[in-house]
Amino acid sequence: MKLKNVLIVVKDIERSKQFYRTLFGLDVVLDNAGCVILTEGLVLQKEDIWRKTLGKDVIPRNHATELYFEEANIEGFVKKLEEFYPDVQYVTQPTSYPWGKKIVRFYDPDGNLIEVGTPG
Q1: d(CA 35, CA 71)
Q2: How far is CA 35 from CA 19, 20, 25, 101, 117, in A?
Q3: Euclidean distance between CA atoms 60 and 6, whole angstroms
Q4: CB within 8 A of 66, min separation 6: which ones?
Q5: Which pLDDT score, from 0 to 100, does residue 80 have?
Q6: Is 6-117 assigned to CATH 3.10.180.10?
Q7: Nearest to 11 by CA among 57, 55, 42, 54
Q8: Would the pTM count as exceeding 0.90?
């Protein structure tokens, strides 16, 4: 068995495609009427489709999952994040840890939790 994709729920597919392209360089692999597959295996699913599929409401900012990215120049990334998304909602500010990693956590426009950390 092999994990193929990770799906996150979004309200606005176009806004989310732009967000993940601008900040993380992810490109569209497949765009299929409310379901978009991006490079690196990230899938964006429109909220109304997801709600209809499950018959349940979507709960943003639930802290149950996190997307993790690595970036050596985390200061440059945070500057880019704040330049393109000045209203970004941080969960944790950039923090250096004793084991040598620096990490920042924030929400995407739909309340999905993202962590960006330095490699290592």
Answers
A1: 27
A2: 16, 15, 19, 34, 28
A3: 16
A4: 105, 113, 114, 115
A5: 98
A6: yes
A7: 57
A8: yes
